[in-house]
Amino acid sequence: MDQPIFPAPPGYIVDLANPQRSGVAANFWVGSVGMVIAALFLCTRIYTKTVLARSFTSDDGALVVAWLFSIAIQAPILFQYARGTIGVHVWELSGSRLNSSFILINIASILYCPFLACAKFSLLFFYLKLSHLRWFKLCIYASMFLVIGYNFALMLPLIFACRPFMRAWDITITEGSCIDRTPIYMATAVLNIITDILLLVLPIPMIVKLQMPTKQKAGLICIFGVGAATCVTSGVRLALLFPMLKTIDQTWAIVMPGLWILIEANLVIITGSLPTMRLFFRHVAPHLIGESTLRSQSNKKGTDYANGSAQLSELKTIGSKKGTKSAYNRMEDDNISVGSDERTAAGWHTDRDSERGIVAPIEAGKIMKTETTVVRSDVVDVDKRERESWKVGF
Fold it and tell me: Do 269 and 41 contact (CB within 8 A), yes or no?
């Protein structure tokens, strides 16, 4: 199969050695730069959750799996551009090169379903930590069932689209039949847009009820709002996909839909990592997010308290094996008594207490020693405000 299978339009001069190319530079730049940026965002999330929060949970695992799928989708696309099997007219491709192109296109289209499913599951697992209200959890579980249901239902027809199986990519096989995959591609895009909107709206009631400053609530909603960008990419991809599926010259027409697939595959990972970015910068560069002043004030008040409290030495033994001067700030997993109320010491907050209330569930600790301690209200207020913000990583 060294010759083209499809005839060229009248008057077109076929040049197999130097065919016309389209979209090569744009797709390489968008794909390679996007993968690097997405990997950096994912690494900051993993660092934040494993080093600062010391808790790698199901939402993190789901996003890592989604990232692996995104690489498996983008690699075949970029590989085909390097080989010159897409972004080329179908009549300037030999039969063997055309078959290899169709194989990789089929692989990428099949992997797209589990990729988006894992990305959505990562967000839904995160939502489970926002509230323990029964109705909210039922909505999340229903959303999970919807996501896994439609993705599984759409992936199976893509895998078994043809009889015999190899007819899906081998254009030399004329026996058998294939289903029309156009409705499947269209349904995938439409359902992804619908679930993107659903996942955008779902957490808003819980965020509004969080006990944190209005400015932080608005910022958190904006972070989730950035996820709406994936709705835009899905919509653009849907608009470009339909005309591509109606033409015989698909290796040429796939350039723009493929470009938006690369954008969406990386944007999903980037937006999925945004909720932990404030926490990351709070640790490495707090001045960039305007928290240096708050930290210095809080540390000053904590120092005053440490100098004025005779019972501080007793508290140092709780949650820390080393009795340093700042050990009272690192009480995490044990219960202490403040006044006459039993409190959880997880609220005493440092950089390594990342997202304690939501990322790493507080373990039931033993009461190592009970002390009645008078705590200055100004110190508690600062810690309380920070503790609430750490619950959502914002």
Answer: yes
SS3 136: helix
Q: What is the pLDDT of residue 290?
A: 61
Cα gap 39→332, rounded to integer Å: 31
**Nearest to 331, CA basis, from 294, 300, 373:** 373
**Cα gap 219→65, rounded to integer Å:** 27
Q: How far apart are CA 333 and CA 336, in angstroms?
A: 10
Question: Mean pLDDT across the chain, nearest whole number?
Answer: 75
Q: Which amino acid is at 337?
A: S
Report whether 348 contacts 329 (CB < 8 A). Answer: yes
- Report yes or no on whether pTM surpasses 0.70: yes
Q: Indicate if the pLDDT at residue 33 is higher than 50.
A: yes
Q: Residue 288 has what pLDDT?
A: 62
Backbone phi and psi for residue 354, each to the nearest 5 degrees, phi listed first: -50, 120
3-state secondary structure labels for all residues of 237-269: HHHHHHHHHCCCCHHHHCHHHHHHHHHHHHHHH
Q: How far apart are CA 15 and CA 276, in angstroms?
A: 51
The residue among 287 and 347 whose pLDDT is bigger is 287
CB 240, CB 256: distance < 8 Å: yes
Q: Can you give the three-state secondary structure of 280-310, one letter per residue?
A: HHHHHCHHHHCCHHHHHHHHHHHHHHHHHCC
Q: Could you tell me which of 59, 32, 62 has the C-alpha nearest to residue 276? A: 59
- For the stretch 328-382, pLDDT in tens is 333 333 333 333 343 433 334 444 343 444 445 444 344 444 444 444 444 444 4
- High-pLDDT (> 70) share of the chain, %: 70
Peptide bond into 19 cis (omega under 30): no
φ/ψ of residue 36, rounded to 5: -65, -45
Token representation of residue 178: 């294939």
d(CA 297, CA 303): 10
Helix (H, G, I), strand (E, B) or coil at 94: strand
Whether the CB-CB separation of 262 and 73 falls below 8 Å is answered with no
